[in-house]
Amino acid sequence: MSKLVIRNIGQILSGKLEEPIFDGDCLIAVDGKISAWGAEADLDCEGADTVVDAMGVTLAPGLIDSHIHPVVGDYTPRQQQLHWIDSTLHGGVTTLISAGEVHMPGRPNDVVGTVAMAIAAQRWYENFRPSGVKVHAGAPLLQAGLEEHHFKQLSDAGVRLIGEVGLGTVKDGKTANQMIGWARKYGMQSTIHTGGPSIPGSGLIDADMVLETGTDVVGHINGGHSALPDDQIVCLCENCKAALEIVHNGNERAALLTLNTARELGKLDQVILGTDGPAGSGVQPLGIMRMVAMLSALGHVKAEEAFCFANGNTARQRKLDTGLIETGKCADFVLMDQAQHAPGNSLLESVELGNLPGVGMTVIDGVVRSLRSRNTPPANRLPELAKGVMGV
Are 182 and 153 within 8 A, CB to CB? Predict the structure, then answer.
């Protein structure tokens, strides 16, 4: 049995919009799962294999990127870049979710090749976790000729995602809706491309098709890159029970429109965040953190609530076992503090002014995976690994 104790926590962000800040200065995880938190004097901290002295910084559930396009390992041919996943970890992100392995050179569009590549992608990220990061991959695109038995085959093999609807050869809402129904029957979750075309072979997907298709996630509702007209974004917010995904690589104005509309409708719990990278805009290691700061500062959302868009909301919408401070959830955390010389009287106030925090440590499954971030600005305080070793 392994035991992690994180003590001297300044503040605990829960990932829960209904109660975004928890009381407590200590958290315990056993065998990679959260077991208790609260006042250190009330907890059993004995027998820990790993002890972290948080030095008064803030602890939050690890951030989740709901929209990435991985290929293989920690390499992306889209930008010819190595170690982009490790770099993303240094932005506080501990979980990544594929919206399709669309940048694979020679990507097949036939049924046999699509099924084979999806299973392979699921397998290679199941067997290899770059820097410990959890990559949910194997997200096939909908191709003409796919039948119900193919979705059962994919599900039986462990595939749980459908890549962006509209990037494959299926272009009409009726066919996509039927296939999404098969996927959902076998426990698979789907995302749809929203807005103008992004890569060769893609095209416009407007609000009518999004609604007709009935997917689980309205992918980059603020465009990837080009957003829909305002009235269509409002229509989607009004009529969708699906997750409303705002991405870094989209239209910032449309992102704020989505946020404000969701707030007016009482649907902030449906807002989740992604980067939509690697893409033509590059790789964004700090993309999720930047979205939190931007939405908080320009969307006038409390910072502790904006962080929920990046962990707890996504965890709930995506049915993940991480992203929340909750007994039995995975012990995946980011420890961060106000950046040096950043305005504001606290980390949260600084974020509400549009500033990035400094990441001092990440933890995945109860194992310390990184220390001081090489990408965020330096923090006022840094947590210390008082006992134990980092994961390799």
Answer: no
